[in-house]
Write a structure and sequence with these properties.
By secondary structure, this protein is α/β, with parallel strands linked by helices. Helices cover 21% and strands 28% of the residues. The protein has 2 domains: 272 residues, Spore Coat Polysaccharide Biosynthesis Protein SpsA, Chain A (Alpha-Beta Complex), CATH 3.90.550.10; 123 residues, Hexapeptide repeat proteins (UDP N-Acetylglucosamine Acyltransferase, domain 1), CATH 2.160.10. The strands form 6 sheets. Strands 15, 16, 18, 19, 21, 23, 25, 26, 27 and 28 form a 10-stranded mixed β-sheet that branches. Strands 1, 4, 5, 6, 8, 9, 10, 11 and 12 form a 9-stranded mixed β-sheet that branches. Strands 14-17-20 form a 3-stranded parallel β-sheet, with no helix packed on it. β2 and β3 form a beta hairpin.
Length: 430
Protein backbone atom coordinates (compact mmCIF):
# COMPACT_ATOMS: atom_id res chain seq x y z
CA UNK A 1 0.00 0.00 0.00
CA UNK A 2 1.39 3.40 -0.97
CA UNK A 3 2.10 6.17 1.53
CA UNK A 4 -0.64 8.19 -0.11
CA UNK A 5 -3.22 5.50 0.58
CA UNK A 6 -2.08 5.23 4.19
CA UNK A 7 -2.74 8.94 4.64
CA UNK A 8 -6.32 8.75 3.41
CA UNK A 9 -8.61 10.15 6.14
CA UNK A 10 -10.94 7.75 7.90
CA UNK A 11 -14.17 9.67 7.69
CA UNK A 12 -17.30 9.04 9.72
CA UNK A 13 -20.47 10.80 8.64
CA UNK A 14 -23.02 11.72 11.30
CA UNK A 15 -26.49 12.86 10.23
CA UNK A 16 -28.48 14.72 12.87
CA UNK A 17 -32.11 13.68 12.73
CA UNK A 18 -33.38 16.76 14.54
CA UNK A 19 -35.89 17.14 17.33
CA UNK A 20 -39.67 16.79 17.33
CA UNK A 21 -40.02 18.60 13.99
CA UNK A 22 -42.83 20.83 15.24
CA UNK A 23 -42.46 23.23 12.29
CA UNK A 24 -43.23 20.37 9.90
CA UNK A 25 -46.28 19.19 11.86
CA UNK A 26 -48.54 17.33 10.97
CA UNK A 27 -46.14 15.61 8.56
CA UNK A 28 -44.06 14.76 11.64
CA UNK A 29 -46.95 13.58 13.81
CA UNK A 30 -46.16 9.90 13.22
CA UNK A 31 -42.62 10.08 11.81
CA UNK A 32 -39.33 11.88 12.38
CA UNK A 33 -38.27 14.73 10.11
CA UNK A 34 -35.77 12.66 8.13
CA UNK A 35 -38.52 10.13 7.34
CA UNK A 36 -40.91 12.67 5.75
CA UNK A 37 -41.59 11.68 2.11
CA UNK A 38 -40.10 14.00 -0.51
CA UNK A 39 -40.19 14.25 -4.28
CA UNK A 40 -42.74 11.50 -4.86
CA UNK A 41 -40.56 8.48 -4.03
CA UNK A 42 -37.85 9.61 -1.61
CA UNK A 43 -37.52 10.51 2.06
CA UNK A 44 -35.73 13.67 3.23
CA UNK A 45 -33.00 11.55 4.81
CA UNK A 46 -32.09 10.19 1.38
CA UNK A 47 -30.56 13.59 0.49
CA UNK A 48 -27.68 13.68 3.02
CA UNK A 49 -27.14 9.92 2.75
CA UNK A 50 -26.85 10.23 -1.04
CA UNK A 51 -24.37 13.11 -0.67
CA UNK A 52 -22.23 10.85 1.52
CA UNK A 53 -22.40 7.86 -0.83
CA UNK A 54 -21.72 9.96 -3.94
CA UNK A 55 -18.67 11.43 -2.18
CA UNK A 56 -17.30 8.00 -1.28
CA UNK A 57 -18.15 8.16 2.43
CA UNK A 58 -20.11 5.04 3.31
CA UNK A 59 -19.79 4.86 7.08
CA UNK A 60 -22.87 6.76 8.14
CA UNK A 61 -24.63 7.12 11.48
CA UNK A 62 -28.06 8.72 11.79
CA UNK A 63 -28.91 10.14 15.23
CA UNK A 64 -32.60 10.39 16.08
CA UNK A 65 -34.96 10.01 19.01
CA UNK A 66 -38.52 10.91 17.97
CA UNK A 67 -40.94 8.69 16.02
CA UNK A 68 -38.09 6.64 14.58
CA UNK A 69 -40.00 3.43 13.64
CA UNK A 70 -40.74 4.36 10.01
CA UNK A 71 -37.21 5.74 9.65
CA UNK A 72 -35.75 2.44 10.86
CA UNK A 73 -37.88 0.56 8.34
CA UNK A 74 -36.84 2.85 5.48
CA UNK A 75 -33.13 2.69 6.32
CA UNK A 76 -33.15 -1.10 6.71
CA UNK A 77 -34.97 -1.58 3.40
CA UNK A 78 -32.89 0.96 1.45
CA UNK A 79 -29.22 0.86 2.41
CA UNK A 80 -27.53 -2.52 2.36
CA UNK A 81 -23.87 -2.36 1.35
CA UNK A 82 -22.00 -5.50 0.34
CA UNK A 83 -19.82 -7.06 3.03
CA UNK A 84 -16.58 -6.11 1.24
CA UNK A 85 -17.21 -2.34 1.16
CA UNK A 86 -17.24 -1.89 4.93
CA UNK A 87 -20.08 0.59 4.48
CA UNK A 88 -23.22 0.98 6.58
CA UNK A 89 -26.04 3.33 7.43
CA UNK A 90 -26.95 2.81 11.07
CA UNK A 91 -29.55 4.56 13.21
CA UNK A 92 -28.55 5.49 16.75
CA UNK A 93 -31.70 6.40 18.64
CA UNK A 94 -31.45 7.88 22.13
CA UNK A 95 -30.82 5.07 24.58
CA UNK A 96 -30.23 4.54 28.26
CA UNK A 97 -26.77 3.38 29.29
CA UNK A 98 -24.77 3.25 32.52
CA UNK A 99 -23.20 6.59 31.53
CA UNK A 100 -26.37 8.52 30.62
CA UNK A 101 -30.11 8.00 30.84
CA UNK A 102 -31.78 11.00 29.20
CA UNK A 103 -32.85 12.14 25.74
CA UNK A 104 -30.46 13.93 23.43
CA UNK A 105 -30.47 17.49 24.73
CA UNK A 106 -29.00 19.08 21.61
CA UNK A 107 -26.85 18.42 18.57
CA UNK A 108 -23.56 18.26 20.48
CA UNK A 109 -25.08 16.19 23.26
CA UNK A 110 -26.34 13.64 20.71
CA UNK A 111 -22.83 13.21 19.32
CA UNK A 112 -21.24 13.04 22.78
CA UNK A 113 -23.58 10.27 23.93
CA UNK A 114 -22.57 8.12 20.97
CA UNK A 115 -18.79 8.40 21.14
CA UNK A 116 -18.69 4.79 22.30
CA UNK A 117 -20.13 3.71 18.94
CA UNK A 118 -18.00 6.11 16.90
CA UNK A 119 -14.61 5.28 18.43
CA UNK A 120 -14.90 1.66 17.25
CA UNK A 121 -14.46 2.96 13.67
CA UNK A 122 -11.25 4.83 14.63
CA UNK A 123 -12.12 7.93 12.58
CA UNK A 124 -9.64 10.70 11.86
CA UNK A 125 -12.44 13.07 10.85
CA UNK A 126 -16.16 13.55 11.45
CA UNK A 127 -18.57 15.14 8.99
CA UNK A 128 -21.67 16.44 10.76
CA UNK A 129 -24.72 16.82 8.49
CA UNK A 130 -28.30 17.96 8.97
CA UNK A 131 -31.16 15.58 8.24
CA UNK A 132 -33.59 18.19 6.85
CA UNK A 133 -31.73 20.17 4.18
CA UNK A 134 -31.96 19.98 0.39
CA UNK A 135 -28.66 20.29 -1.49
CA UNK A 136 -26.02 18.37 -3.39
CA UNK A 137 -22.48 18.81 -2.13
CA UNK A 138 -19.23 17.09 -3.02
CA UNK A 139 -18.21 16.22 0.53
CA UNK A 140 -14.86 14.92 -0.76
CA UNK A 141 -14.00 18.40 -2.02
CA UNK A 142 -15.17 19.84 1.31
CA UNK A 143 -12.89 17.40 3.16
CA UNK A 144 -9.90 18.08 0.89
CA UNK A 145 -10.14 21.82 1.49
CA UNK A 146 -10.41 21.21 5.24
CA UNK A 147 -7.24 19.10 5.28
CA UNK A 148 -5.26 21.42 2.99
CA UNK A 149 -6.16 24.47 5.08
CA UNK A 150 -4.78 22.92 8.25
CA UNK A 151 -8.02 23.79 10.08
CA UNK A 152 -9.26 21.75 13.01
CA UNK A 153 -12.89 22.55 12.18
CA UNK A 154 -14.42 23.69 8.90
CA UNK A 155 -17.98 25.01 8.65
CA UNK A 156 -19.91 24.94 5.38
CA UNK A 157 -21.27 28.42 4.74
CA UNK A 158 -23.83 29.94 2.42
CA UNK A 159 -23.66 33.59 1.33
CA UNK A 160 -26.86 35.48 2.22
CA UNK A 161 -28.17 39.04 2.03
CA UNK A 162 -28.71 41.27 5.05
CA UNK A 163 -32.42 40.49 5.29
CA UNK A 164 -31.91 36.72 5.42
CA UNK A 165 -28.96 37.03 7.80
CA UNK A 166 -31.37 37.49 10.72
CA UNK A 167 -32.38 33.82 10.45
CA UNK A 168 -28.90 32.29 10.63
CA UNK A 169 -25.71 32.09 12.62
CA UNK A 170 -23.44 34.60 10.87
CA UNK A 171 -19.67 34.20 10.63
CA UNK A 172 -16.97 36.83 10.40
CA UNK A 173 -13.95 35.65 8.38
CA UNK A 174 -10.52 37.01 7.42
CA UNK A 175 -8.79 36.90 4.03
CA UNK A 176 -7.78 33.26 4.57
CA UNK A 177 -11.38 32.14 5.32
CA UNK A 178 -10.54 31.66 8.97
CA UNK A 179 -13.56 32.40 11.17
CA UNK A 180 -12.81 35.10 13.73
CA UNK A 181 -16.27 35.56 15.26
CA UNK A 182 -19.72 34.00 15.26
CA UNK A 183 -23.08 35.68 15.88
CA UNK A 184 -26.40 33.84 16.27
CA UNK A 185 -29.28 35.46 14.31
CA UNK A 186 -28.34 39.18 14.36
CA UNK A 187 -31.27 41.57 14.87
CA UNK A 188 -32.50 43.30 11.71
CA UNK A 189 -31.58 46.77 13.04
CA UNK A 190 -28.06 45.81 14.17
CA UNK A 191 -25.20 47.27 12.13
CA UNK A 192 -23.04 44.34 11.01
CA UNK A 193 -21.28 45.96 8.06
CA UNK A 194 -17.91 44.88 9.49
CA UNK A 195 -19.08 41.24 9.16
CA UNK A 196 -19.23 41.39 5.35
CA UNK A 197 -17.35 38.77 3.34
CA UNK A 198 -13.79 39.95 2.50
CA UNK A 199 -13.32 40.77 -1.17
CA UNK A 200 -10.59 38.13 -1.49
CA UNK A 201 -13.04 35.40 -0.46
CA UNK A 202 -16.01 36.51 -2.56
CA UNK A 203 -15.12 34.83 -5.84
CA UNK A 204 -18.14 35.02 -8.18
CA UNK A 205 -20.77 35.50 -5.46
CA UNK A 206 -23.69 37.82 -6.39
CA UNK A 207 -23.12 41.38 -5.18
CA UNK A 208 -26.10 41.42 -2.79
CA UNK A 209 -24.92 38.33 -0.88
CA UNK A 210 -22.58 39.95 1.61
CA UNK A 211 -22.68 37.76 4.73
CA UNK A 212 -21.73 34.17 5.51
CA UNK A 213 -24.37 32.01 7.16
CA UNK A 214 -23.61 28.68 8.79
CA UNK A 215 -25.31 25.75 7.05
CA UNK A 216 -25.03 23.58 10.15
CA UNK A 217 -22.63 21.29 8.27
CA UNK A 218 -19.24 20.73 9.91
CA UNK A 219 -15.99 18.82 9.56
CA UNK A 220 -14.09 18.13 12.78
CA UNK A 221 -10.73 16.54 13.30
CA UNK A 222 -11.57 13.60 15.55
CA UNK A 223 -9.19 14.63 18.31
CA UNK A 224 -10.58 18.17 18.29
CA UNK A 225 -14.14 16.87 18.53
CA UNK A 226 -13.30 14.77 21.58
CA UNK A 227 -11.72 17.75 23.35
CA UNK A 228 -14.52 20.19 22.54
CA UNK A 229 -17.24 17.82 23.75
CA UNK A 230 -15.52 16.98 27.02
CA UNK A 231 -18.05 19.10 28.94
CA UNK A 232 -21.81 19.46 29.35
CA UNK A 233 -22.48 21.89 26.49
CA UNK A 234 -25.35 20.68 24.34
CA UNK A 235 -25.44 22.57 21.01
CA UNK A 236 -22.89 22.97 18.21
CA UNK A 237 -24.17 26.26 16.78
CA UNK A 238 -24.90 28.10 20.01
CA UNK A 239 -22.11 26.80 22.26
CA UNK A 240 -19.42 24.54 20.77
CA UNK A 241 -18.58 26.58 17.64
CA UNK A 242 -18.36 30.00 19.40
CA UNK A 243 -16.15 28.39 22.07
CA UNK A 244 -13.93 26.68 19.46
CA UNK A 245 -13.28 29.90 17.52
CA UNK A 246 -11.40 31.34 20.51
CA UNK A 247 -8.79 28.58 20.79
CA UNK A 248 -8.84 26.54 17.57
CA UNK A 249 -8.42 27.15 13.86
CA UNK A 250 -11.95 27.19 12.49
CA UNK A 251 -12.36 27.86 8.76
CA UNK A 252 -15.31 28.44 6.46
CA UNK A 253 -16.06 26.57 3.24
CA UNK A 254 -18.25 28.68 0.96
CA UNK A 255 -20.86 26.59 -0.83
CA UNK A 256 -22.10 28.53 -3.88
CA UNK A 257 -24.93 26.30 -5.06
CA UNK A 258 -28.56 25.52 -4.25
CA UNK A 259 -29.28 24.86 -0.59
CA UNK A 260 -32.65 24.94 1.14
CA UNK A 261 -33.64 24.31 4.72
CA UNK A 262 -36.92 22.39 4.37
CA UNK A 263 -37.89 22.60 8.02
CA UNK A 264 -41.31 24.27 7.59
CA UNK A 265 -44.50 23.32 5.74
CA UNK A 266 -44.12 26.27 3.32
CA UNK A 267 -40.44 25.62 2.54
CA UNK A 268 -41.17 21.89 2.13
CA UNK A 269 -44.11 22.61 -0.20
CA UNK A 270 -42.23 25.14 -2.33
CA UNK A 271 -39.08 23.03 -2.58
CA UNK A 272 -41.15 20.02 -3.66
CA UNK A 273 -43.08 21.92 -6.35
CA UNK A 274 -39.84 23.45 -7.64
CA UNK A 275 -38.96 19.93 -8.80
CA UNK A 276 -41.63 20.32 -11.50
CA UNK A 277 -39.88 23.27 -13.18
CA UNK A 278 -38.13 22.66 -16.54
CA UNK A 279 -34.78 23.30 -14.85
CA UNK A 280 -35.33 22.71 -11.11
CA UNK A 281 -32.98 24.18 -8.53
CA UNK A 282 -32.53 20.68 -7.11
CA UNK A 283 -31.95 18.33 -10.02
CA UNK A 284 -33.00 14.71 -9.60
CA UNK A 285 -31.76 13.84 -13.09
CA UNK A 286 -27.97 14.05 -12.64
CA UNK A 287 -26.61 10.64 -13.54
CA UNK A 288 -23.35 11.11 -11.62
CA UNK A 289 -25.12 12.37 -8.47
CA UNK A 290 -28.19 10.16 -8.03
CA UNK A 291 -30.47 10.34 -5.02
CA UNK A 292 -30.75 6.84 -3.57
CA UNK A 293 -33.81 5.40 -1.89
CA UNK A 294 -35.72 2.17 -1.32
CA UNK A 295 -36.13 -0.16 -4.30
CA UNK A 296 -39.90 -0.55 -4.49
CA UNK A 297 -40.36 -2.97 -7.44
CA UNK A 298 -43.58 -1.18 -8.38
CA UNK A 299 -45.16 -1.33 -11.85
CA UNK A 300 -45.02 1.65 -14.24
CA UNK A 301 -47.62 4.34 -13.70
CA UNK A 302 -50.78 3.97 -15.78
CA UNK A 303 -52.13 7.20 -17.29
CA UNK A 304 -55.65 6.65 -18.64
CA UNK A 305 -56.51 9.56 -20.94
CA UNK A 306 -55.29 12.13 -18.39
CA UNK A 307 -53.45 15.43 -18.90
CA UNK A 308 -50.33 16.00 -16.82
CA UNK A 309 -48.58 19.37 -17.09
CA UNK A 310 -45.33 20.19 -15.24
CA UNK A 311 -45.96 17.18 -13.01
CA UNK A 312 -43.88 14.36 -11.57
CA UNK A 313 -45.68 11.02 -11.33
CA UNK A 314 -43.93 8.30 -9.34
CA UNK A 315 -44.12 4.54 -9.86
CA UNK A 316 -47.25 2.50 -9.41
CA UNK A 317 -49.82 5.28 -9.95
CA UNK A 318 -53.16 4.96 -11.75
CA UNK A 319 -54.49 8.30 -13.01
CA UNK A 320 -57.74 8.34 -15.00
CA UNK A 321 -59.43 11.08 -17.08
CA UNK A 322 -58.08 13.93 -14.95
CA UNK A 323 -56.12 17.15 -15.27
CA UNK A 324 -53.03 17.61 -13.09
CA UNK A 325 -50.87 20.75 -13.18
CA UNK A 326 -47.62 21.57 -11.37
CA UNK A 327 -47.93 18.73 -8.88
CA UNK A 328 -45.84 15.92 -7.46
CA UNK A 329 -47.64 12.57 -7.27
CA UNK A 330 -46.22 9.92 -4.95
CA UNK A 331 -45.97 6.15 -5.31
CA UNK A 332 -49.17 4.07 -5.62
CA UNK A 333 -51.38 7.15 -5.96
CA UNK A 334 -54.86 6.45 -7.30
CA UNK A 335 -56.60 9.46 -8.90
CA UNK A 336 -60.04 8.71 -10.31
CA UNK A 337 -62.08 10.32 -13.09
CA UNK A 338 -62.76 14.03 -13.61
CA UNK A 339 -60.33 15.37 -11.01
CA UNK A 340 -58.59 18.72 -11.31
CA UNK A 341 -55.36 19.12 -9.29
CA UNK A 342 -53.16 22.23 -9.22
CA UNK A 343 -50.15 22.68 -6.99
CA UNK A 344 -50.71 19.41 -5.12
CA UNK A 345 -48.08 17.37 -3.30
CA UNK A 346 -49.60 13.91 -3.03
CA UNK A 347 -47.42 11.48 -1.08
CA UNK A 348 -49.17 8.35 -2.30
CA UNK A 349 -49.66 5.15 -0.35
CA UNK A 350 -47.69 2.46 1.45
CA UNK A 351 -49.77 -0.35 -0.09
CA UNK A 352 -52.58 -1.12 -2.54
CA UNK A 353 -55.95 -1.86 -0.99
CA UNK A 354 -57.30 -5.34 -1.62
CA UNK A 355 -60.87 -5.88 -2.78
CA UNK A 356 -61.67 -7.31 0.68
CA UNK A 357 -60.34 -4.14 2.35
CA UNK A 358 -62.36 -1.95 0.02
CA UNK A 359 -65.54 -3.92 0.76
CA UNK A 360 -64.96 -3.68 4.51
CA UNK A 361 -64.34 0.08 4.26
CA UNK A 362 -67.44 0.56 2.14
CA UNK A 363 -69.58 -0.84 4.98
CA UNK A 364 -68.02 1.79 7.24
CA UNK A 365 -68.64 4.48 4.59
CA UNK A 366 -64.90 4.99 4.15
CA UNK A 367 -63.90 5.94 0.57
CA UNK A 368 -61.31 3.91 -1.28
CA UNK A 369 -57.72 5.02 -0.77
CA UNK A 370 -56.59 7.80 -3.08
CA UNK A 371 -58.67 10.56 -4.62
CA UNK A 372 -62.28 9.92 -5.63
CA UNK A 373 -64.14 11.09 -8.74
CA UNK A 374 -64.81 14.74 -9.53
CA UNK A 375 -62.46 16.27 -6.93
CA UNK A 376 -60.91 19.72 -7.23
CA UNK A 377 -57.78 20.29 -5.16
CA UNK A 378 -55.32 23.19 -5.09
CA UNK A 379 -52.32 24.24 -3.00
CA UNK A 380 -52.42 21.17 -0.79
CA UNK A 381 -50.25 18.43 0.67
CA UNK A 382 -51.95 15.04 0.87
CA UNK A 383 -50.05 12.74 3.21
CA UNK A 384 -49.83 8.99 2.68
CA UNK A 385 -52.76 6.55 2.72
CA UNK A 386 -55.43 9.27 2.62
CA UNK A 387 -59.00 8.35 1.63
CA UNK A 388 -60.61 11.26 -0.23
CA UNK A 389 -64.19 10.69 -1.35
CA UNK A 390 -66.00 11.76 -4.52
CA UNK A 391 -66.73 15.41 -5.41
CA UNK A 392 -64.53 16.92 -2.71
CA UNK A 393 -63.21 20.47 -3.03
CA UNK A 394 -60.00 21.30 -1.17
CA UNK A 395 -58.64 24.85 -1.06
CA UNK A 396 -60.62 26.07 -4.07
CA UNK A 397 -63.49 27.90 -2.35
CA UNK A 398 -61.44 30.97 -1.49
CA UNK A 399 -62.07 30.51 2.23
CA UNK A 400 -59.14 31.43 4.48
CA UNK A 401 -58.18 29.40 7.53
CA UNK A 402 -56.07 30.31 10.53
CA UNK A 403 -52.84 28.37 10.79
CA UNK A 404 -53.30 25.26 12.90
CA UNK A 405 -55.43 22.17 13.37
CA UNK A 406 -58.94 22.10 11.90
CA UNK A 407 -59.93 18.51 12.57
CA UNK A 408 -60.01 16.90 9.14
CA UNK A 409 -57.05 18.97 7.98
CA UNK A 410 -54.26 21.30 9.01
CA UNK A 411 -53.62 24.78 7.60
CA UNK A 412 -50.19 26.43 7.27
CA UNK A 413 -49.81 29.78 5.46
CA UNK A 414 -52.61 29.01 3.04
CA UNK A 415 -51.44 25.45 2.38
CA UNK A 416 -53.93 22.72 3.31
CA UNK A 417 -52.40 19.53 4.72
CA UNK A 418 -54.49 16.34 4.66
CA UNK A 419 -53.14 14.06 7.37
CA UNK A 420 -51.69 10.60 6.92
CA UNK A 421 -54.51 8.05 6.72
CA UNK A 422 -57.19 10.77 6.84
CA UNK A 423 -60.75 9.99 5.74
CA UNK A 424 -62.43 12.83 3.81
CA UNK A 425 -66.12 11.97 3.14
CA UNK A 426 -67.86 12.47 -0.22
CA UNK A 427 -68.74 16.08 -1.03
CA UNK A 428 -66.48 17.64 1.62
CA UNK A 429 -65.58 21.29 0.99
CA UNK A 430 -62.45 22.66 2.68
Amino acid sequence: MSAKNKEEPRVLAIILGGGKGTRLYPLTKERSKPAVPFGGKYRIVDIPISNCINSGYKKIYLLTQFNSASLHLHINNSYNFDRFSGGFVEILAAEQTLEHSGWYEGTADAVRKNFGHFRVQKPTHYIILSGDQLYKMDLKEFMNEHIESGAEITIAAKAVNRRDATGFGIMQVDDTNRITAFMEKPAADLNIDHWKIPEKSRGDLPADLEYLASMGIYIFNAETMEKLLDNEKTDFGKEIIPMAIKDHQVNSYIFNDYWEDIGTIRSFYEATLDLTNPVPAFNLYEETKPVYTQMSNLPPSKINNATLTSTLASEGCVITDSSIKKSVIGVRSIIREDCDLKGVVMMGADFYETEEEKAANKKKKIPDMGIGKGCKIEKAIIDKNAHIGNNCCINVSGKKYDDGDHGLFYSAEGIIVIRKGAVIPDGTVI
